[in-house]
Design brief:
Strand order of the largest sheet: 1-2-5-6
Shape: globular
Low-confidence stretches: none
Structural class: alpha+beta
Mean pLDDT: 91
Length: 149
């Protein structure tokens, strides 16, 4: 069974493996994604645990999952709205301290099954962003799980 490239979340590096396919009225293959909230929580956990800097799209994903506008995130991080916009469009690099705070905020705000301290987060925010695939086990949609990279 081929992995489903889940671009509907706004990221181009998420793949769901083991999903059941069906057929629509024209006998075209279709995929139904149940429990999208759970799926997005697993994607957020995967982003928070990246061992390198996140991309602008990943920052935007976490921001929107936390229900924050660019303006609100900018106020929290003590930067301008345009700075957040530039980070998300990857025109400028995300400040390390800002990214660390966003990761810690995501753990708290999204109630992720992670416990990270500042030192652990600091170690993850060291090298350049990479567009590494985020692979999710979708064989049981009520128990989405990240797969090893």
């Amino acid at each position: 069974m081929q992995a489903y490239h889940y671009t509907e979340c706004g990221l181009d590096n998420v793949f769901i493996e083991g999903m059941e396919t069906g057929n629509d009225h024209a006998s075209e293959p279709t995929i139904t994604i149940p429990a999208i909230g759970l799926l997005h929580k697993v994607i957020a956990e995967s982003i928070v645990n990246l061992p390198f800097k996140m991309t602008g799209k990943e920052l935007r994903f976490l921001r929107t999952e936390m229900g924050l506008t660019q303006e609100r995130l900018a106020r929290i991080l003590k930067v301008t709205n345009i700075t957040v916009s530039r980070w998300e469009r990857e025109e400028t690099a995300i400040k390390d301290t800002a990214e660390m705070l966003v990761r810690l905020m995501a753990v708290h705000e999204l109630e992720l099954d992670e416990s990270m301290n500042v030192n652990e987060v600091s170690e993850k925010v060291t090298s350049s962003p990479q567009n590494t695939p985020i692979r999710i086990d979708g064989s049981d949609p009520l128990r989405y799980q990240p797969l090893a990279a």
